[in-house]
Write a structure and sequence with these properties.
The chain is an all-alpha fold. It is built from twelve helices and two strands, in the order ααααααααααβααβ. The relative contact order is 0.08.
């Protein structure tokens, strides 16, 4: 029977030693010895002791970038949902290794700090993509992109933690439902394809009775408001913009 690949043997050895001796007390040499390889082999697969614990975030971030890059303006939010699903599936495919990592990072503060830093990288990537999709350089749009990205990451992490604790039997379905909830909070901005036609509805406050106002509003909507067109006087009398 053939041995598992060195990378897997190293990961198994590392987690076994962390359980036996504690994370701080385990060295790279200890891990390499337990896995039956040399230090050179260890560093061929992992850059550090910490790197054994965490998934390859650089590769995951690249997968997200690739998926987002294939989207158009109209499919941008679909791409965001797909990208979130890709990350979740990576953890699910790791199986018990992901759960052992979760247990370890819950106990070691230095590892928790690193995990928080990695989450920030995902949020920044989503924020930059969403901001570009919105196409609005204003500060309010920048804030909205930040909020959207934070909500996207929070939805993924909520489902992931449920699965890691054994509380989610179908995490893919749960993350799809969570993303639907999140993205429904943020209506899509107008894109190039939305620039022509359609109906614009404006809310305003009026001192007139609604029954008296409706005929003028109907004529305004049916007649359109092309450039240079004068709105009916009755629709304007006594009205003030809503605040």
């Amino acid at each position: 029977m053939s041995k598992p690949p060195a990378r897997i043997r190293l990961a198994d050895a590392a987690f076994a030693l962390f359980d036996e001796r504690g994370y701080e007390q385990t060295t790279v040499d200890d891990i390499a010895e337990r896995a039956g390889v040399g230090r050179t082999t260890f560093f061929r697969h992992y850059r550090s002791k910490e790197a054994v614990i965490f998934p390859d975030h650089d590769r995951l971030l690249e997968l997200i970038r690739d998926r987002l890059a294939t989207s158009s303006h109209s499919t941008a939010l679909v791409a965001v949902s797909d990208a979130v699903r890709l990350v979740l599936l990576h953890y699910v495919d790791e199986g018990d290794l992901a759960r052992r990592r979760y247990a370890l990072t819950s106990k070691v503060s230095a590892l928790r700090d690193r995990e928080i830093a990695s989450v920030a990288c995902y949020q920044r990537l989503f924020r930059e993509f969403i901001a570009d999709w919105m196409g609005d350089p204003t500060e309010s749009a920048s804030l909205r992109a930040e909020i959207m990205a934070a909500a996207v990451v929070a939805a993924h992490n909520h489902v992931l933690r449920r699965w890691l604790r054994g509380e989610a039997s179908d995490p893919v379905r749960e993350v799809d439902e969570a993303m639907s909830e999140v993205l429904a909070l943020f209506p899509a901005p107008s894109g190039p394809e939305d620039s022509g036609g359609g109906t614009t509805v404006v809310a305003f406050r009026s001192g007139q009775d609604l029954d008296a106002l409706l005929p003028s509003l109907r004529r305004l909507v049916e007649g359109g408001t092309g450039a240079g067109r004068r709105e009916p006087d009755q629709a304007r009398q006594g009205n003030e913009p809503a605040r």
